[in-house]
Design brief:
Blueprint lengths: L1 E6 L7 H12 L3 E6 L6 H8 L3 E5 L5 H10 L6 E4 L1 H5 L3 H5 L3 E3 L3 H14 L9 E4 L5 E3 L17 H4 L3 H5 L2 E4 L2 E3 L9 H7 L7 E3 L2 H12 L6 E4 L8 H14 L4 E5 L6 H10 L1 E9 L3 H7 L6 H13 L3 E8 L6 H14 L3 E6 L7 H8 L25 H16 L3 H10 L10 H12 L3 H11 L14
Parallel strand pairs: 1-2, 1-3, 3-4, 4-5, 8-11, 11-12, 12-13, 13-14, 14-15
Antiparallel strand pairs: 5-6, 6-7, 9-10
Amino acid sequence: MRVVILQAAAVDESLALCDLAGVLGARGHTVRLLLDDQERDLAASLRALRPDAVFVQAAYMGEPWARRAVGLVPVGVPSVLIGTAATFDADIVERLGAWGALAGELDVCGPALVAALDSDGDLATVPALVWRDGDGVIRRNPWGEAPDLDALPLPDRSLYYEAYPFMGRFPWKRFVTGRGCVHSCGFCYLPPLRDGYGGQRATVRRKSVDRVIAEIQAVQARWPLSHIHFADDLFAPSRAWLEELADRYPREVGIPFSANTSPETVTEANAALLARAGARIVGIGLETGIEANRTGLLGRPTRDKAIRSAAARLKANGIQLLTFNMIANPGEPFEESLETLRLNQELGTDFPRVNLAYPAPDSLLERLMRDRGMEMLSPDTHRRQELKAWCAEGDPTPFEALTRLFRLATRTRLPVPLVSAIAKAVPDARWLAPLVFYDASVEARWSGVPLLDALRYARHAGPPNRRVTYHESLP
C-alpha cells in the first residue's frame, strides 16, 4: 500500500513516525511524509502521491490544522488521525469528520490497520482503532500489546531526511533509549496511556545498549551528526544499563549528548556515570517552585530536597542543568509562579524551559479548572504559538510576561521583585516579544550546534513554539 503521512511543520519531527515507517517499509509498504509548512500546495502534493491511506497528525494544540488536513484527503481514501489528540480526545474523529483514528503507540496498530486495508480484512481486529463502520457508526477497538523495542526494524529516518534534506543536514538529532516513566504525574500523558493498555504495560520499557548504538550508527553512516539528544521521558533509570552505556558509548559513538531524567534517579553514582558516558546537559522536571503544589496539586512526588541534590550532583560532575517548569496552573497566584523563578535562580539553572499550563481535554488541569468553576475552552481555539495562560484565574498578562522574562531572569539572576514589577506593569506581554532573540541564543547554546547551522535550520522550520504536543512514543 501507499501510505502518506501529513504533518503540520518541520519542528514536529516525530521519532514515533520514523518507527512506524521502519515497520511498514520492512513489510513492503511505501511510506511518504508531507510537511505542510514545506509544501507550496499540500493538496496537490498529496494527490500526486496517489495514497491508499492517509495518516493525519492530530495533536493537542493542533486541531485547526488537522481539520483542514482531513479535508484535503481525496474522496474514498481513509483519513486516519494519529497523535496525542487522536489518543486521548474521545470525540475527535466525529468532530473532525475523519474516517478513523489510531490511539497510542503505532508500532503494532499502524501496520495492522494497513494490512487490513490492503487485504480488505476485518477492521474489528485492528488494535486501538476508532473507525466508522459501513453504517457510519463509530466503533472503538481495544488497545493492543506492547512490542519488544529491540525486535522492531530500525527507524526509517529517510521519511524526513530524504524528503526534506535541510533536516538531514542539521547535525543535532534526537533518539530514544526507551519508553515510559516510573512516575504517574497528574499532568502527564503517560498515566492515561498506560490506562489505555489496561495498565498491563511495564512502567519503563528499555532498549538494549546494542540497539541504541545501532540506531545512532545507522544515522551516522548517512547524515551529519555532531550532537545527540535522548528524548526519553526518563533516561537511564537502571544503574546496570547506565554502567554499560558509560563503558561503550564513548568508544563506539563518542558524541556529546543531552538527556532528561527524574531528580530521584540522579544519585551520586549515576551522576558520575552520566558524565563518563558523555552527558553535557541533563534536564530534570521542577514544574513548580512550591513543593506542596508539585506533590499535591500536580501529583508529582518530587521533593525540593531531591531537586536540589540532583542539581548539585550534576554540576559537581561538570554537567549543565536544564529544568522544565510549568506556571499559571489552575488556582496558582502569580506570587507562587515567582517562587518557581526563585528556585531556578537558587539552583543556578543553565537552561530553563518554561511553559504555561495547558488544559488538554480530560486532563488533570482541565478537571482542576472545572472544579474551580473556570471556563472551558473548545480545543479548536488552542494554539501553542499564542503563548496564552490558559489556566490562569484573573488577569493572565503577568503570567505571560513572566514566561517571556523567565530565561533572562534565571540566567542573570535578576531580582525577583524587579521581575514581578515588570510583569505586572506591561499592559500586554507581547511588549516583551524581542526577548525571543535572547531565548533563541540560549537554545542555540543548549543544542551545541554552530550558529550558522542553527540559522539555516530555523529559516525552514521556524521557531520552536510552533511545535504541537507530541511525545517520544506518540506523533
